[in-house]
């Protein structure tokens, strides 16, 4: 049976499918039509020796499409070669926030989709032990059902999201996708005119409830991530909303699943994590969380020289494992230590970050009033 590391090293050639491409001279209305017809998130543009991509998100940011060509809106992206590994494709998808990547030696002759890569996760034994609450993004941004499509667009652009849960009196009643908003901005009958301004009044008056998909995919926090992913694929959804006691807890998208195949990027300063669990998915999630939080702390406190985390695992009679985490931070010759514990390793790291930030921003000596800087590193 295939394992995580084998999948990461697998060549992308076996995942290739037919690419969706257009000419750099294609008008933006033509691009929108191609995306709608193929129910796609992006279209590839070959421009000389480079490959560009125009996504739904790019169109969402555009308010005037008259005379605009694909070449003026596209973003240059890397092209995969047949010998590239899945982990490289996953990293590019994660970095560029794409659901498909172009592939080929000289010309584009295929595409690798996020769905095809995620499908390959399903047979992996270790993946089937991961709960969905470990992958989800907590407390997603929402919009009220009576809010306008114009506001939905502003939220999506500002926060770079494609999925916006819709609420009614605080309860989730649907979801709004970026392509739904785009098609409300540029209705089929008006695409030929290439004008957004002519539809501004109508577009601004459309409510989220008129565009949303009420048939939402919902899961519980203790469900297996593999089961949720299977349902996403079967129901042709790009997300799953996690609810508990009728309250929205989080959202998981294909990007959260494909991130499991990306090797966590280490910070550019000494940051070490010792005692990772044997489970490769648990280890990947913990490492990614630790490195992310280490970078965030270093940005806030540049004087930090080293961060080291030590994990101890303790088994309990129920068969579950409890994690004890100790973190030491070295700065200007001083060592500052912190600790946390919990049943969920990524969540325990998350709690540690909040604790460290609170302590690191405290004034070291309240009697000193000469400095206004609140940092344990201030002298």
Helix-strand blueprint:
Blueprint: H1 4-9, E1 16-17, E2 21-22, H2 28-37, E3 42-47, E4 50-55, H3 56-60, H4 70-73, E5 75-76, H5 86-96, E6 100-103, E7 110-113, H6 114-119, E8 137-138, E9 143-144, H7 149-159, E10 163-168, E11 171-177, H8 178-185, H9 188-191, H10 200-205, H11 208-211, E12 218-219, H12 225-234, E13 239-244, E14 247-253, H13 254-258, E15 271-274, H14 280-300, E16 304-315, E17 321-331, E18 334-342, H15 345-360
Parallel strand pairs: 2-3, 9-10, 12-13, 15-16
Antiparallel strand pairs: 1-7, 3-4, 4-5, 6-7, 8-14, 10-11, 13-14, 16-17, 17-18
Describe this structure in words.
34% of the residues lie in helices and 25% in strands. By secondary structure, the chain is an alpha+beta fold. The chain has three domains: 4-123, CBS-domain (Roll), CATH 3.10.580.10; 132-258, Roll (CBS-domain); 271-360, Ribosome hibernation promotion factor-like (Double Stranded RNA Binding Domain, 2-Layer Sandwich). It has a four-stranded mixed β-sheet. α7 crosses α8 (178-185) and α14 (280-300) packs parallel to α15 (345-360). The longest helix has 21 residues, at 280-300. The chain is globular.
């Amino acid at each position: 049976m295939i394992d995580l590391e084998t999948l990461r090293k697998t060549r992308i050639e076996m995942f290739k499918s037919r690419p969706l491409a257009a000419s750099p001279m294609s008008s933006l209305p033509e691009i929108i039509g191609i995306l709608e017809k193929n129910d796609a998130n992006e279209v590839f543009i070959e421009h000389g020796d480079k490959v560009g991509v125009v996504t739904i998100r790019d169109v969402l940011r555009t308010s005037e499409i008259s005379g605009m060509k694909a070449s003026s809106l596209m973003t240059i992206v890397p092209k995969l070669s047949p010998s590239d590994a899945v982990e490289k494709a996953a990293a590019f998808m994660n970095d560029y926030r794409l659901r498909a990547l172009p592939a080929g030696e000289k010309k584009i002759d295929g595409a690798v989709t996020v769905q095809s890569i995620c499908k390959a996760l399903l047979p992996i034994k270790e993946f089937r032990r991961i709960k969905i609450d470990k992958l989800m993004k907590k407390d997603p941004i929402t919009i009220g059902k009576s809010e306008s499509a114009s506001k939905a667009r502003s939220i999506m652009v500002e926060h770079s999201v494609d999925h916006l849960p819709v609420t009614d009196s605080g309860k989730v009643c649907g979801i709004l996708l970026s392509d739904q908003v785009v098609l409300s901005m540029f209705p089929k009958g008006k695409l030929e005119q290439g004008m957004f301004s002519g539809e501004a009044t109508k577009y601004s008056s459309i409510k989220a409830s008129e565009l949303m998909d009420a048939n939402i995919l919902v899961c519980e926090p203790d469900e297996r991530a593999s089961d949720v992913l299977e349902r996403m694929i079967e129901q042709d959804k790009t997300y799953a909303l996690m609810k508990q006691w009728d309250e929205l807890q989080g959202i998981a998208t294909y990007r959260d699943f494909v991130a499991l195949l990306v090797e966590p990027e280490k910070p550019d300063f000494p940051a070490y994590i010792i005692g990772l669990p044997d489970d490769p998915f648990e280890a990947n999630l913990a490492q990614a969380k630790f490195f992310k939080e280490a970078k965030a702390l270093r940005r806030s406190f540049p004087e930090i020289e080293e961060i080291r985390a030590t994990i101890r695992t303790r088994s309990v009679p129920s068969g579950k494992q409890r994690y004890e985490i100790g973190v030491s931070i070295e700065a200007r010759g001083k060592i500052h230590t912190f600790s946390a514990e919990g049943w969920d390793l990524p969540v325990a790291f998350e709690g540690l970050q909040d604790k460290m930030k609170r302590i690191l921003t405290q004034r070291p000596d309240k009697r000193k009033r000469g400095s206004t800087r609140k940092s344990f590193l201030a002298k």
